[in-house]
Design a protein that fits this description.
Elements (H helix, E strand, L loop, with lengths): L1 H27 L26 E6 L2 E16 L5 E18 L2 E9 L2 H4 L5 E11 L2 E7 L5 E13 L2 E10 L25 H4 L8 E7 L3 E8 L20 E11 L2 E10 L11 E14 L3 E14 L6 E11 L4 E13 H4 L9 E18 L2 E13 L5 H4 L5 E11 L4
């Protein structure tokens, strides 16, 4: 009778024990100095502590395994003579395993994308986008796909005083301490399936083949320095893009989290010949970003980002600037609105305008608004259906190229990601 009673008590308390185990997992997976897991952005960047998490956690002995990712099955149509349409799937998946080692915490990560096959080597149509190349020609009005290997890295963090810690990040494929949190990982862009047109002015180094980053941090401030390979990936999206290159570029970033709902960062980098088509050209890249996550109504969240980034090619005498303001408003557990407004100064070579001198510059912009509705969960994944409409702004000198000064586009999509933990 006693054994039966104990068994019934054990069955009755199993859900509570499971919840406690998950809570223990989350605590174990937090960083040194009590920094919460929700602060981790892409690479070694920081998010606001209040950022939502969409990940599954599993305890495997002394290791905590986190599974994270997102996929958009989409129909993309961009108007005008430079537009096009495409069925594709933008996606990424990440696994991270962490445990306590030597008084600190070690985390090993792997992040992959199937975009080389699901959107193809040319990427997906996106008006006034530029950056990287395809078949020895600059990509324009398309967003390049992510590489198969987005991150293969190890991060070790250890406290050395009551409120001081040190970190070391080693990545055959990873992200240096340059730019804001990369757009696939920003809560402010969580439901937008497209990259910003300012991507290569801000977070374009988020896939780099060869990175070493060292940092010192407190509970609220982190200073980092990176040594990395400055070359952008080539159009073979499934290999490792070392090509005999050494770690020839460097960068530094200062991040301040003044409270649980804000993260502010500033960065500077020297990139040695980032573009494979122009190996003799190098540049400085710098900028500032402010990210915030605020409560909204009953159970809603509002995440926003304001980012300024600039490229300053060596010998050019002036920088080209970019600004993006993006926001993701989760009204409740079902309905979400999102938007993005951008300005970038691009030249004729980047936009591939053969009728103009390569150095001719143009002020271009984009405004996008969208809506996504959650339709259900299954197997630990939450599904949503969404729509995104956009209008782009080009000067009169580009009207003939784009067929209008305000060419537009839209995308309809189905989104899959893990159920959020908070």
């Amino acid at each position: 009778m006693r054994r039966l009673l104990l068994a019934l008590i054990g069955c009755a308390t199993w859900p509570l024990r499971a919840q406690m185990d998950m809570q223990h997992s989350m605590e174990m997976n937090g960083g040194p100095l009590g920094i919460p897991e929700s602060r981790r952005g892409s690479g070694t960047s920081w998010l606001p502590d209040a950022s939502p998490m969409h990940a599954a956690h599993i305890m495997l002995g002394d290791w905590t395994l986190m599974l994270h990712g997102q996929g958009f099955g989409q129909y993309d149509r961009q108007g005008g003579p430079r537009g096009g349409d495409q069925l594709g799937i933008t996606n990424w998946a990440m696994a991270a395993a962490s445990r306590s080692v030597g008084g600190g915490r070690v985390e090993v990560r792997g992040m992959l994308s199937a975009e080389p096959w699901t959107v193809g080597s040319r990427g997906y149509p996106l008006l006034v986008q530029s950056g990287e190349s395809y078949r020895s020609a600059p990509l324009h009005d398309r967003q390049h796909p992510h590489d198969l290997f987005m991150e293969l890295a190890a991060l070790y963090e250890r406290p050395v005083a009551r409120n001081v810690g040190l970190s070391l990040y080693l990545a055959p494929v990873g992200e240096p301490a340059v730019g804001p949190v990369a757009f696939p990982h920003r809560p402010s862009a969580a439901d937008d399936p497209f990259a910003p047109i300012s991507h290569h002015w801000q977070d374009g180094t988020h896939i780099t083949f060869g990175v070493v980053t060292a940092g010192v941090f407190t509970r609220a401030v982190k200073l980092e320095g990176s040594w990395f390979n400055g070359r952008e990936p080539d159009d073979n999206r499934t290999n490792f893009d070392y090509g005999g290159r050494r770690l020839d570029s460097y960068g530094t970033r200062l991040t301040v989290n003044p409270g649980p709902r804000w993260s502010v960062s500033a960065w500077y980098a020297y990139l040695k010949s980032p573009e494979g088509l122009h190996p003799d050209e190098s540049l400085h890249r710098y900028g500032v970003a402010a990210l915030t996550t605020q409560p909204y109504g009953r159970g809603g969240q509002w995440a926003s980002a304001l980012i300024w980034g600039a490229n300053d090619p060596l010998g050019s005498g002036h920088a080209s600037n970019s600004v993006v303001l993006e926001s993701n408003l989760a009204l409740d557990g079902t309905n979400t609105l999102f938007g993005r407004a951008e300005y970038v100064r691009k030249n004729a070579e980047e936009l591939v305008v053969p009728s103009a001198p390569p150095t001719a510059e143009y002020d271009v912009g984009a405004l996008a608004l969208g809506y996504v509705r959650t339709i259900g969960t299954m197997g630990g994944l939450v599904a949503g259906v969404g729509v995104r409409g956009s209008v782009n702004f080009v000067p009169s000198s580009l009207e003939a190229e784009y067929g209008s000064r305000t060419p537009g586009g839209f995308v309809v999509y189905v989104r899959l990601r893990p159920v959020g933990t908070h």
